[in-house]
């Protein structure tokens, strides 16, 4: 392994190369004091370089040496793990069906659509549904809601929370025993208390917050969903340097993906739409450009189809592309009105 | 917070000095670079950069609130839980009490439908004493199209709140609370926005009205494309004004007719696209809001004012709290009035469509008889 790939400062790297140490193996057998003398640096600094080098060396060696790779997971284990995690329901059966049961944990899902289609509604609904107790087939987790647009409405969250509890007590009639206990626990105020709300006012704050989430979530382990509403807003205003924008966005996407993996939680990014000129006509696409569209695992587009709202799976590694109707009611996201019969049959 | 100085964040002295020496002064500078770029620039190890970035991030990132504490704060601190009642019962109910504080509310509609009338009424309501359901505050009215009429304002006041306006001096006091600005160009508008930011903190301003946002840019640009970008800064500035002073902001928007090839769909909707083309040829007029999709994303509540089959309607087209409802209304000498408090629920494309059919016939100046 080359010295150039070590995560050390540029001047230290320069000193190493100037002293003739171009590969790791060339100095890994030296003592720190020897290295310090050669490079004319302090003993502490030399010890630090040795520590970093031996760490990288070990990773490098294990990859080449043994048959199994450190940190890897077999596909069979992954399948097993995937089945263990319940999905977060959207409260709309048809939408859940095309999503394979709901929003998946450990994945980044992007949801976009025209203004007024119900992106924020879906966001609030998910923040509440993640709290459905395990007894009712939910996750019993908490939610982080990152609001960049100021569109989160507490009044609306309260409405949806009340409707959610109502629905649960209806199906709780069958399991009367645990219902009593659950009712105590599930008060609308408790639901609101479990939504951690951050109001972000600039893209710097947005990046800072996403850096900080790592620490925040390790203090609040039961957070099971992170919703960003919307990921676009600050990146769409006052940006002249598009290359910088792309770089910052992809850095942010990587951090979010890492969060999703490390803490097995769902990340939902809401995105706006924009007009794009393709083949002589304007088309609607999600904002932030082509390189951004690679950064999410799943992509769902909400759109109007005649009189109904539809969701379309635009991109997913495991789901086939399909569309399903849904509607936004006073209770929140529900099945489309024309499919009402199906609800009654249940 | 984004421009907070790194030197004041309590980082270890040695690393803080390195940041300063490399011209990385603010959090914005530091967080706009990746960790590896920072390593190169500052000439320090990865571990130090990571911990410094984590430290900066923690200080810059906004405070965490729970939704519950948010709600309790609003109920405690704000009159009417943060809403400006429009005194139109049906609409107030749909919007949970009126025009909410802290967000943008947009009025869209064809010329002469009553957008300015709506704004005048709201200005009046915000300046009224709290005992009459007002906010008892000052109003800043940015009148781009020079349509503000003091005479009409007083008329609405006298007709709808005679008990206040017939008291001596009250009309003067109420009207004295409304400050009208008339910027002639976008740059003047930008300037006055910045002044407003200061005066919002000093005075008891309880409402900001901008009539209209579209006129500012349609005057300056012919093409659709640059329009969105020019407003980018204004959109986020106005939003942050609303947020930090916690006042309602009402903005009007004009309409323009949409040509057929501009109708937008997603690529996977190709089939239905052909159908809609046939559809559209049958309609002679097809109106859309003058400011584009980027602007539409930025407003939290969109109210569409339209005329359909000899009747005017006010529609809640976009709102996080209300279902899409339409209320018939009329404009009388006492201002805009709903004819019915029961909204008609809308579905599908009707929600966003802007109809404009012969509303000129139904303007009713002596509409006393219609006040029911």
Summarize the structure.
The complex is a heterodimer of chains A (346) and B (372). By secondary structure, chain A is of the alpha/beta class.
Structure notes:
- The complex is a heterodimer of chains A (346) and B (372).
- With 346 residues, chain A is an alpha/beta fold.
- Chain A has helices at 10-18, 32-39, 43-65, 75-84, 93-98, 119-129, 154-172, 176-185, 188-193, 203-219, 233-236, 242-262, 289-292, 340-345; strands spanning 108-113, 142-147, 195-199, 223-229, 266-271, 273-278, 281-286, 298-305, 308-315, 323-329, 332-334.
- Chain A folds into 2 domains: 3-65, Orthogonal Bundle (DNA polymerase, domain 1), CATH 1.10.150; 76-345, Rossmann fold, CATH 3.40.50.300.
- Chain A contains 14 helices and 11 strands.
- Residues 62-67 and 340-346 of chain A have low confidence and may be disordered.
- Chain B has 372 residues and is of the alpha/beta class.
- In chain B, strand 12 (311-318) and strand 13 (325-332) form a beta hairpin.
- At the A-B interface, helix 1, helix 6, helix 7, helix 9 and strand 3 of A face helix 2, helix 3, helix 4, strand 1 and helix 5 of B.
- Strand 3 of chain A pairs antiparallel with strand 1 (64-66) of chain B, so a sheet runs across the interface.
- Chain B: One of its GO terms (cellular component) is Rad51B-Rad51C-Rad51D-XRCC2 complex.
- Chain B: It is found in: Nucleus.
- Chain B: Pfam families: HHH_XRCC3_RpoA, Rad51.
């Amino acid at each position: 392994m080359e010295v150039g790939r070590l995560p050390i400062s540029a001047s230290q790297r320069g000193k190493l190369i100037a002293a003739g140490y171009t590969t790791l193996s060339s100095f890994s057998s030296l003592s720190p004091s020897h290295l310090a003398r050669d490079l004319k640096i302090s003993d502490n600094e030399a010890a630090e370089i040795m520590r970093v080098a031996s760490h990288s060396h070990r990773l490098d060696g294990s990859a080449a040496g043994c048959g199994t790779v450190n940190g890897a997971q077999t596909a069979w284990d992954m399948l097993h793990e995937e089945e263990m995690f319940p999905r977060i329901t959207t409260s709309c059966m048809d939408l859940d069906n095309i999503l394979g049961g709901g929003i998946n944990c450990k994945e980044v899902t992007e949801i976009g659509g025209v203004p007024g289609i119900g992106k924020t509604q879906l966001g609030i609904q998910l923040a509440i549904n993640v709290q459905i107790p395990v007894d009712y087939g939910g996750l019993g987790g908490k939610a982080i809601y990152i609001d960049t647009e100021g569109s989160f409405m507490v009044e609306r969250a309260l409405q949806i929370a009340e409707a959610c509890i109502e629905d649960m007590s209806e199906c709780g009639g069958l399991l009367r025993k645990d219902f009593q206990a659950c009712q105590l626990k599930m008060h609308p105020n408790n639901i609101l208390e479990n939504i951690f709300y951050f109001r972000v006012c600039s893209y710097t704050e947005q990046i800072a917050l996403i850096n900080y989430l790592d620490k925040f979530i390790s203090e609040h382990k039961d957070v099971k969903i992170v919703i960003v509403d919307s990921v676009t807003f600050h990146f769409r205003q006052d940006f002249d340097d598009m290359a910088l924008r792309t770089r910052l966005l992809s850095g942010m996407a990587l951090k979010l993906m890492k969060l999703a993996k490390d803490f097995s939680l769902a990340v939902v990014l809401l995105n706006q739409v924009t007009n794009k000129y393709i083949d002589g006509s304007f088309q609607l696409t999600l904002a932030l450009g082509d390189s951004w569209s690679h950064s999410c695992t799943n992509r769902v587009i909400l759109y109007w189809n005649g009189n109904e709202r539809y969701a379309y799976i635009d991109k997913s590694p495991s789901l086939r592309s399909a569309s399903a109707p849904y509607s936004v009611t006073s209770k929140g996201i529900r099945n489309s009105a024309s499919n009402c019969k199906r609800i009654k049959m249940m | 917070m984004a421009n907070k100085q790194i030197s004041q964040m309590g980082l270890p002295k040695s690393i803080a000095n390195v940041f300063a020496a490399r011209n990385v002064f603010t959090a914005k500078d530091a967080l706009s670079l990746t960790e590896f770029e920072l390593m190169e620039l500052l000439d320090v190890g990865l571990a130090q950069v990571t911990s410094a970035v984590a430290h900066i991030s923690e200080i810059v990132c906004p405070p965490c609130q729970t939704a519950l504490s948010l709600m309790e704060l609003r109920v405690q601190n704000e009159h009417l839980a943060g809403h400006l009642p429009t005194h139109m019962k049906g609409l107030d109910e749909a919007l949970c009490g009126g025009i909410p504080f802290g967000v943008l509310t947009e009025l869209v509609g064809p010329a002469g439908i009553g957008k300015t009338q709506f704004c005048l009424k709201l200005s009046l309501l915000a300046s009224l004493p709290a005992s009459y359901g007002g906010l008892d505050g000052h109003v800043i009215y940015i009148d781009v199209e020079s349509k503000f009429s003091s005479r009409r304002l007083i008329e609405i006041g006298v007709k709808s709140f005679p008990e206040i306006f017939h008291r001596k001096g009250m009309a003067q006091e109420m009207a004295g609370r409304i400050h009208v600005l008339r910027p002639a160009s976008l740059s003047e508008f930008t300037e006055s926005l910045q002044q407003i930011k200061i005066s919002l903190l000093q005075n008891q301003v309880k409402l900001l009205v901008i009539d209209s946002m579209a006129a500012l840019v349609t005057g300056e640009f012919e093409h659709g494309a640059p329009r969105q970008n020019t407003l980018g800064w204004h959109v986020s500035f106005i939003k942050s004004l609303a947020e930090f002073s916690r006042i309602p902001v009402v903005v009007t928007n004009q309409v323009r007719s949409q040509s057929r090839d501009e109708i937008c769909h997603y690529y996977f909707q190709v089939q239905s696209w052909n159908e809609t083309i046939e559809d559209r040829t049958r309609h002679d007029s097809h109106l859309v809001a003058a400011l584009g999709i980027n602007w539409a994303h930025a407003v939290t509540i969109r109210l569409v004012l339209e005329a359909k089959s000899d009747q005017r309607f006010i529609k809640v087209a976009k709102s996080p709290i209300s279902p899409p409802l339409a209320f018939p209304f009329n404009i009388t000498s006492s201002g805009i009035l709903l004819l019915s408090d029961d909204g008609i629920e809308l579905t599908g494309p009707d929600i966003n469509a802007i109809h404009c059919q012969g509303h000129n016939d139904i303007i009713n100046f002596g509409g006393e008889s219609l006040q029911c």
